[in-house]
Amino acid sequence: MPFTVEGRGMFGGGYFTVSYEGVYLASLIMLRAIAAVTLVVIMLATASFDTTIKALYSLKVPSTIVQMLMFTYRYIFVITDEFQRMWKAIRSKGFRPATGKYALSITGNLIGMLLVKSYDRAERVYQAMIAKGYTGKPCTIVEFHMKAKDYLAGIIIISVAILLHTYHLVF
């Protein structure tokens, strides 16, 4: 963005000029992304995964997204175990990681087979879930009960967010 957004030039010249506006916009986007990632990390680090999933469902996050998060969390570990098993198998057959054409071909084949196996497993799991009456609604053992202090905390957090968002407009 510093090179493509029109505005006052900071430095450079000729074909490439860095603009103040481009640096400002790039910084703004970067800070927002860092804030979003920080909030997600804090959310996931302070509550169990079951609690987080139930909270997302209670906050009316679309069911498809909640289900994708649940399955992603579950199958990251399954795919990691499958990869380690396949890696151990090719290492036991004498494969040594390198940057040559042969080693990259073997590594590409390994990743391709992992994707194919993952797809096949996902299809089998889906068929088994449908056969057992899967409805798409996440079932967790966590129950939520809103209290007055929860509503108060929500109002305070939303008020602070609105104040921070409109602060530059008022003052």
Describe this entry's structure for a reader.
The chain is built from five helices and two strands, in the order ββααααα. The protein has helices at about 20-45, 50-60, 65-90, 100-130, 150-170, and strands at about 10-15, 15-20. It has a two-stranded antiparallel ribbon with strand order 1-2. Helix 3 (about 65-90) crosses helix 4.
Strand/helix succession: EEHHHHH
Count of beta strands:
2
> Which regions have little confidence, pLDDT < 50, spanning 5+ residues?
none
Oligomeric nature of the chains: single chain
Q: Provide a count of the helices.
A: 5
Broad structural category:
mainly alpha
Amount of beta strand:
5-15%
The overall pLDDT average reads: 84
Strand order of the largest sheet: 1-2
- Give the % helix: over 70%
The geometry reads as flat
- Rg, rounded, reads 24 Å
Main beta-sheet strand count, sense and barrel state: 2 strands, antiparallel
What is the CA–CA distance across the termini? 29 Å
Per-chain topology:
Layout: E1 9-13, E2 16-19, H1 20-46, H2 49-58, H3 63-92, H4 101-131, H5 148-170
Helix pairs in contact: 3-4
Features:
mainly alpha, 71% helix, single chain, two-stranded antiparallel ribbon, 5 helices
Structure summary:
By secondary structure, the chain is mainly alpha-helical.
